[in-house]
Amino acid sequence: MNDPVTALHATVSAAVSGLTGGEVPELGLERPGNAAHGDYATSVAMRLAPLLGKAPRDIAQLLADVLVADPAIASVEIAGPGFINLRLAASWYHQALSDMLSAGAQFGRSVVAAGDEILVEFVSANPTGDLTIGSARNAAYGDSVARLLTFVGEQVTREYYFNDAGNQIALFGQSVQARRLGAEIPEGGYPGDEVGELAAALDLPDDASLAEWTARGIEAMMVRIRGSLERMRVTFDLWTSEQTLHASGAVQKAIAQARSEGHVFEQAGATWLRTTSFGDDKDRVLLKADGELTYFAADLAYVGLKFERGAARALYVLGADHHGYISRLKAGAACLGYDPERVEVLIYQLVTVSGERMGKRRGNVITLDGLADAIGVDAARFFLVQRSHDQMLDIDLDLAVETSSKNPVFYVQYAHARCQSILRKAQADGLTTTGTGPAHAPEPQEAALIRRLAEWPDVVATAADLRAPHRIVTWTQELAADFHAFHHDLFVLHEDEEIRAFRLSAVAATGEAIARALDVIGVAAPDSM
RNA sequence: GCGCCCGUAGCUCAGGGGAUAGAGCGAGAGACUUCUAAUCUCGAGGCCGCAGGUUCGAAUCCUGCCGGGCGCGCCA
């Protein structure tokens, strides 16, 4: 696939290579923030100065002499300490437009990733209640990362792991039973409304065993969770339960494996994994003195299982309150003989609602469904990944509910709807065209829009690399702004066929770009609003 | 005490070595006889927490400090 920016990159690279006899440093080719500095600028002359032993501006001049001959470049100027500022020619814009349109949905996928299987485990909330807003961020972020990686060519498997063993689950089972029988909820149990609803709906006789209440309760809760996630357009390839790890013998097998690697020891009646050998700050118990396995024992088995199944990398999406798991999981993998670099833990910061932290026992729980009810799935997803995952996120519910019409998601979606509306009108009025109207010299608003569209391959590659879907959101807003300005100033269905062809191509490319970008974050691109 | 994240405009935040640091919201002034005004244009608003260091060049990388958030169980 042809990519207009890559072509520009190659042009500059060739010029540099001609000067150095082959060696090409990082070009530093980017869009300057200041329009006076050209459409693109490179700082390569300054980087070459130590290598060539010449003044940066002299090097810049030599490069400029070569670059100015390229038909895609309209003008070259040298500025400041040795920047080379490039202005693109009309031919570049036409080529860019036609490249993007012919690539269509494939545009930006040219950045070929390794193609190894990447396992992305996310959400993984225990089935003891509805998903909360914290899980909502996990779902939106994790799913967007998975979509991003898929977009750049990785083979992604999405997995949800849930604990269905241990104390919390026992308490949940007791709570379900108590709710059904109208008895007192046990200390530390689950008083949520959803537990009551679920208990009432279970097709079990009142004298069913606690084990049955527990198993059926978990099953029903998982159905609820799955439904909430599907509503948010989040799906999984694998659902793995803790019990299956115990039942299959995977836990015992993992402990044996770690033992054979020499990382297991006994102390004070418990069995330990020496994770400190691999950078953890303390060793971890696998088998407690009372004979019970810890959750970490299952976690250890699970990480081993991921690699055994053939995953090249195992990504975990966890909330900031679990950041202590990073060194633990990596060390666990190392104790099993795997390269800890293959474990990658993505931590997102906590979500607060109107400045307050939420908790099931604080009585101020906002659920994923509640959020979607309040502001809609599109706004919820957009909002949840709008900010860096490294940044705390506060959801001002009053504002989110009340001002949904000024939520940025509508701004972006409206740009897409406008594109489709224009294309429909062109069709209806028999004004459709072919090609990009080669004789038309782009107006500034047209040029700005095309340059923005051409950024996509770099934007999506960087976002995938940094596991930072918020960069997609930022870009869609910039693109929408460029489009709205273009639309406001220039009439698309112009009587001049050359102009109309160019603008219709730009509108088509913009519509595709918005839809493609929004899809990466799981947001719909409506054809009309 | 130790570890992770954050500190940028009144507020919420982009910006992951480049030039005069950006956007949205809020407050101010304007723009619709044409494809959707859910739009656009203009101005105001900044010791980029502080201090050092690396570099031709630092909001960005390194060190220390200050402030905020979250963790640091044979809990789950």
The CATH architecture name of the domain at 407-520 reads Orthogonal Bundle
Helical residue percent?
Answer: 40-55%
Strand segment count: 15
- Spell out the CATH superfamily of the domain at 407-520: Isoleucyl-tRNA Synthetase, Domain 1
Mean of all residue-level pLDDT scores: 93
Question: Which fold name is given in CATH as the topology of the domain at 407-520?
Answer: Isoleucyl-tRNA Synthetase, Domain 1
Assembly level:
single chain
Identify the strand order in the major beta sheet.
7-6-5-11-12
Biggest sheet descriptor: 5 strands, parallel
Strand percentage: 5-15%
Specify the structural class. alpha/beta
Shape: globular
Question: Spans with pLDDT under 50 lasting ≥5 residues?
Answer: none
CATH class of the domain at 407-520: Mainly Alpha
* Rg from Cα: 28 Å
Q: Helix count, per DSSP? A: 20
Question: Distance between the terminal alpha carbons, to the nearest Å?
Answer: 33 Å
Write out key terms for the chains shown.
Isoleucyl-tRNA Synthetase, Domain 1, alpha/beta, globular, 529 residues, RNA-binding, Gyrase A, domain 2, Rossmann fold, 5-stranded parallel sheet
Could you please describe the fold and organization of this structure?
50% of the residues lie in helices and 13% in strands. The chain has 529 residues and is an alpha/beta fold. Among the domains are: 4-88, Gyrase A, domain 2; 248-348, 3-Layer(aba) Sandwich (Rossmann fold), CATH 3.40.50.620; 407-520, Isoleucyl-tRNA Synthetase, Domain 1 (Orthogonal Bundle), CATH 1.10.730.10. The strands form four sheets. The protein has a five-stranded parallel β-sheet with strand order 7-6-5-11-12, with helices on both faces. Strands 1-2-4-3 form a four-stranded antiparallel β-sheet. A three-stranded antiparallel β-sheet has the order 8-9-10. The model has no long low-confidence stretch (mean pLDDT 93). It binds one RNA strand of 76 nucleotides through helix 2, helix 6, strand 10, helix 16 and helix 19.
